[in-house]
Amino acid sequence: MNSSLPEVDVDSGGNLPAGRYRQVRARTESLIRGLAPEDTVVQSMPDVSPTKWHLAHTTWFFEQFLLAAFQPAYERFHAGYEFLFNSYYQQVGPMFERARRGLISRPTLAEVLDYRHAVDAAMQELLAASGNDPRIAEHVTLGCNHEQQHQELLVTDIKHVLARNPLTPAWRELPAPEPEEPAPVAWREFAGGVVEVGHGGEGFAYDNELPRHRVFLEPYALAQRPVANAEYRAFMEDGGYRRPELWLADGWARVQEERWARPLYWSEDDEREFTVAGLRGLEPAAPVAHLSHYEADAYARWAGARLPTEAEWEQAASAEPIAGNLAEAERLHPQPPGGASLAGLWGDVWEWTSSAYLPYPGYRAPEGAIGEYNGKFMSGQMVLRGGSCATPRDHIRATYRNFFYPGQRWQFSGLRLARDA
Amino acid sequence: MNSSLPEVDVDSGGNLPAGRYRQVRARTESLIRGLAPEDTVVQSMPDVSPTKWHLAHTTWFFEQFLLAAFQPAYERFHAGYEFLFNSYYQQVGPMFERARRGLISRPTLAEVLDYRHAVDAAMQELLAASGNDPRIAEHVTLGCNHEQQHQELLVTDIKHVLARNPLTPAWRELPAPEPEEPAPVAWREFAGGVVEVGHGGEGFAYDNELPRHRVFLEPYALAQRPVANAEYRAFMEDGGYRRPELWLADGWARVQEERWARPLYWSEDDEREFTVAGLRGLEPAAPVAHLSHYEADAYARWAGARLPTEAEWEQAASAEPIAGNLAEAERLHPQPPGGASLAGLWGDVWEWTSSAYLPYPGYRAPEGAIGEYNGKFMSGQMVLRGGSCATPRDHIRATYRNFFYPGQRWQFSGLRLARDA
Amino acid sequence: MNSSLPEVDVDSGGNLPAGRYRQVRARTESLIRGLAPEDTVVQSMPDVSPTKWHLAHTTWFFEQFLLAAFQPAYERFHAGYEFLFNSYYQQVGPMFERARRGLISRPTLAEVLDYRHAVDAAMQELLAASGNDPRIAEHVTLGCNHEQQHQELLVTDIKHVLARNPLTPAWRELPAPEPEEPAPVAWREFAGGVVEVGHGGEGFAYDNELPRHRVFLEPYALAQRPVANAEYRAFMEDGGYRRPELWLADGWARVQEERWARPLYWSEDDEREFTVAGLRGLEPAAPVAHLSHYEADAYARWAGARLPTEAEWEQAASAEPIAGNLAEAERLHPQPPGGASLAGLWGDVWEWTSSAYLPYPGYRAPEGAIGEYNGKFMSGQMVLRGGSCATPRDHIRATYRNFFYPGQRWQFSGLRLARDA
Amino acid sequence: MNSSLPEVDVDSGGNLPAGRYRQVRARTESLIRGLAPEDTVVQSMPDVSPTKWHLAHTTWFFEQFLLAAFQPAYERFHAGYEFLFNSYYQQVGPMFERARRGLISRPTLAEVLDYRHAVDAAMQELLAASGNDPRIAEHVTLGCNHEQQHQELLVTDIKHVLARNPLTPAWRELPAPEPEEPAPVAWREFAGGVVEVGHGGEGFAYDNELPRHRVFLEPYALAQRPVANAEYRAFMEDGGYRRPELWLADGWARVQEERWARPLYWSEDDEREFTVAGLRGLEPAAPVAHLSHYEADAYARWAGARLPTEAEWEQAASAEPIAGNLAEAERLHPQPPGGASLAGLWGDVWEWTSSAYLPYPGYRAPEGAIGEYNGKFMSGQMVLRGGSCATPRDHIRATYRNFFYPGQRWQFSGLRLARDA
């Protein structure tokens, strides 16, 4: 999950960036509540970053692209951090190897928080002095969006860390699960034709949402809600993980190699799942989560349906108000769907689409290191839409394109069925 | 590269399948001219299959899907061959591990040829008796197309085998290279709009070319010829393999891991390349070949252009007569472009597109094991178009979709530039 | 590095085990001075264990082999710890995968210290009640020796953890290095003949030191001191790491694979080394440390000498009083040799021998899980002798056999030359 | 398995080397009877070399160390063969990567035989002219011994190649197995004391058998015959492969990783084994073969015994005449023991000892590339003694030290029990 900076919303009347900056930065720190310093060190697989690293890297982003860029007298907090906390910006310089982030015990959590606060202070000065400079404002907006992405990753990463521990520790509390079975799925039809997709209005969007452009869609239908745990269990009971004819070849190879037999966090008895509150009973009506694209695709084939394309999804979502089980609900876990027109469209689980993550016609990456945010990842990944229970409400929109490799499943990723109308 | 069976061309007037069968089978055997039995055993990497295996697997295809299916009294030539020579048809049964095909010295080449001839005899009987049965005819057509695909793979595979040998042995002869520099590239413009792509007429097509459907294209332009060796060398001399900003992230990782610094078969002095005739001087004006998608994409970015989408390519190609340096030219090596409207469109090198290999809207895989031909590979691969110097003339068409992983480069794969008009 | 339990020193007059227990346990906790909780989590390679794990595993040893075995009413501190903190005792039950110890953030350091203190309290009770029971006393003695081994590993492991950090953090202080060059090496001759080796007297010894037995030695000579940094640098400058004729074949393969060009902790300019006090200048006269057996062997060959056998080493050491730069000196770093008869024999660096770690004639492993301490590791490893700067004074003796794989070099391992007399 | 050149047996009266040369070279070629050219290409694992490679490498040895060294006007048969067919002589120059030998189809078998015959002709000239030159004679003797080692490897390698083929092809014929159960094992006692081991007399020996030297042995006993298939099956039925307490730690790890559950070539029903004659019924009384050192060691522990040291074995064997199921018997498969004093001591199976392969006291490797024959492999391997059913009669002797890594099991390797007397 990565990003760029056109079309920034700087409200000319006040110093909006400073307030937004404070709010986003404070929420990040609020996320470490319930974690010990030891928790913040661990990298449980190469895709995961330590909590401590997220706290530092998001800070480096502001130091690198705001303070070092726009504050001539600024002195870096620590000479070694540019190398340690650069993620993948090749044009900034060399970086510490991603897969080894969990080997770095220093700076400690306290030292990282010192780093955050020092950069925050310098940022407040910069914003007080020149927060209305549009170049600064657009980079701050980008940095805040960047940090929100890492807020979600921090959640999914620490969940993965704790899940690897045989003691299955809890981090947050969750209300007791509801044992209700899911209601039968309903379908909503859409007419298709030449439609417009991609970001076109005001407000922030990443470069990968641009430009707004026309696509041709055949008529299609979407399920009114995401696939539920109980439905996914029926797929498993019908031999889902043992029938190669249901799988893409790469997916079947992965199933064999990694001996996949259930969603990532389900217990071996298929009765419980690991959550931010530790192991607890599966909720039959809640959306199934932590699926790879391969599993989502196999389920859809088994169900006689398919995944939607990202254009189909976006066309349907463009009319739906943004509300649902998002990060502000403080659940950090999918919930049974409510009664919305397209329930669970926003929040709960990211929905895998059948679309590869590729540039839109006319796409241009921004100049410079910032241009590495999104464009260079447009290979081998699949698009997900709609946000999850760990996505902030003001971070998601109908045109938002999230992307992961088809075998990745540590995100809150599920699916909604589609079919030709 | 894989396949299916709708819309077969059975000419009702005669027994066309039998003639076509004989012709395709004979051409396959003609390809082993110049090879020793020892050459036919080796598998130089997991993607490569031994020559002997291609000869046997294509035979197994007819034995499995024609003789065993339609000839009730047929007895298999050898009880062990169903397991040894099944490639990936999970619904047929278990198969020998792909990466170990080079460990199998028996059956010998002579025994494999005996197998071919026994199956040929039984097929002639079947076709004489019931060649006009449409189900049989369509499977024979599919088997012939399947075998033509393996004819091309046999060539690219044995080229790879011989290239790994420090003695750089030659297999065929080639005329002396021409030292001409390429002419400046010209561009042809296309209007775009809602266009139709995919196979819609008569004649054979694979299932992945179906159904014909509408897409929306913005105006675009294509280079009049593929990128030439001399141009690619200029990219290299400009630091192409050392500049991360030119590469997709996955591509840059691969460049580092495998220390790529030039096309697959170029010598370290960048003056010669390995060909079916052994090492020989690079031809500056000939299309550059044996590129991965990553390299093609990086070159295009360096050149200020991009790769075409498969729909753009198909729209342009649909008006172009099929002619060029195809397998019948017996070169098995790309040639400098002639004066066609879109030179080198057919033959020479497969042209990487920017399109992921995904199902067309409304795509349905056929029922049964044959349905595994194409559909299950629609993940993680990119589309190539236009055929190469190893593709038979009657095997290629404007709607033909070839596909490989973006890191693969042992095919005759190159590129043609595109840009927004 | 691993152990057993014959011949325990239980002084019948008092409760010696209790005092020894307290002293050893206290020293272990004193080692974490200077470390942050974050430091104690990290596992920088599979051979390394986190500090936190050492603290817990040594405690588990007493819980498992004393409290659970001899205290009928004892209740385990935590149900999950038996699985988490078993190292390799197959007969005790399943264990957490060694290479994943660094993924476990819980129990936290504070919780592990609680575990230690709870077990300490229960042990004091057990020892007060039945410390003179010989079975208990001998297991306590074994547990204390076991914990001393882990004291040394804790030091070498955390050194490795900190060394991987590009910030090169310091943990302890060290006096400034002395720039003196080493004095020329002198040799001491030994007569050989049929000699006795192995533990034979009173006092504790591991099972692998038993039984005392006869071996035949040809006359030989040992260098009066270990090889010094300055000498090892001369080997490097003479192309030591580029000349295959100096190396064992396995060693040369490792040099190529891992691109070894210097001892483990030397900086790339060969002027500094990483120590417990961070990076500091190399001391020319100090013993070279952190060599693999392959490097020690190659150096000896280059120097026209060889490594001693373990019997040669033991025969020479049996007459030498135990004194030197051991753990009590609180240096945790090798020092230039003093004027002892065989300087540096005790402490400073473990000395690689040319002997494979194999059972002595007549060796018998103890019954039960304790029998897994040493015997099962007698394959593929080489013997080191003499202790290091991280070995407690009362843990080392002439018959002590340490052992590591020939490619391991994160211990304080160096060499002393030998030759035929 | 590798070699050196002191103490050569040049009979001064005639040109013995020439006759010996012819005889050894002819036997090598006789071994390929029954193989197709395709068989001679395959390398079924990195330890295995293709038949074709053995034929060429043994020829290269004479070309390199005799013709190029002693025949000033000699021109190499082919410029590329020095690189292709050097095995591991670093001082000769770079070499083709061992693990890729199976990727080389050219030179073909016929071309390799041409190479052999051309070198043979040049060698006959050299030997006719100067066969009595002691330096030449000693190198020819070494080359002949070297070739005999490769004769055995050619057999074990092609057996491995054919065994990987699901068609289980046969290469030679074998008489029908005898269903007799083994007789109870008897023991022979030996007094021990200071004994001499190593080569000391006349006749050829490898450098690793030198110098003859004294060792001290405690009294011991050896089983009168090797362990039989029926006995090994009893170990398996008693849970041998499922009980970690029977195994060295490295062995147990290997059992898990490779899922070992029986000797290398036994069928899954434990009733048949793969032989040079294809799959056939197990012979209960025949020595068990194709065990790793780990399995031999675990069996011995289960049986309440141990493996002999190499000195114990040699001391016992020094009095036994060399006779048994060796290569000249043309069985290439172990046979039930006859009535010799120490039955099966020579031939049948190599017997794993408990001794690591290390230099004898006073060992010196020869100067130059020939010095790489043995010395550099003295790390990580274990000694085997006594020859196998694939060892030529005039190649084995009481002092002969064969050596392999403890996990290797594609040789004819078994065990004889030992115990303290």
Question: What does this protein look like?
Answer:
4 copies of one chain form a homotetramer. Chain A is of the alpha+beta class and 421 residues long. Chain A folds into 2 domains: 12-163, Four Helix Bundle (Hemerythrin (Met), subunit A), CATH 1.20.120; 187-420, paralog of FGE (formylglycine-generating enzyme) (Alpha-Beta Complex), CATH 3.90.1580. Chain A is 31% helix and 11% strand. Chain A is built from 9 helices and 11 strands. The first copy, chain A, has helices at 16-30, 51-70, 81-85, 109-130, 134-164, 229-237, 249-258, 293-302, 310-317; strands at residues 187-190, 193-197, 213-217, 220-223, 272-275, 278-281, 350-356, 382-385, 402-404, 413-414, 418-420. A 4-stranded mixed β-sheet of chain A has the order 9-8-7-10. In chain A, strand 5 (272-275) and strand 6 form a beta hairpin. In chain A, helix 1 (16-30) packs antiparallel against helix 4 (109-130), helix 1 (16-30) packs parallel to helix 5 (134-164) and helix 2 (51-70) runs antiparallel to helix 5. The longest helix of chain A has 31 residues, at 134-164. The two termini of chain A are 32 Å apart. The model of chain A is unreliable at 1-14 (pLDDT under 50). Chains in contact: A-B, A-C, B-D, C-D. Chain A binds chain B through residues 88, 90-91, 194, 213-218, 244-245, 247-252, 293-294, 297, 309, 354-356, 358-359, 361-362, 371-372, 376-380, 406, 420, and chain B through 88, 90-91, 194, 213-218, 244-245, 247-252, 293-294, 297, 309, 354-356, 358-359, 361-362, 371-372, 376-380, 406, 420.
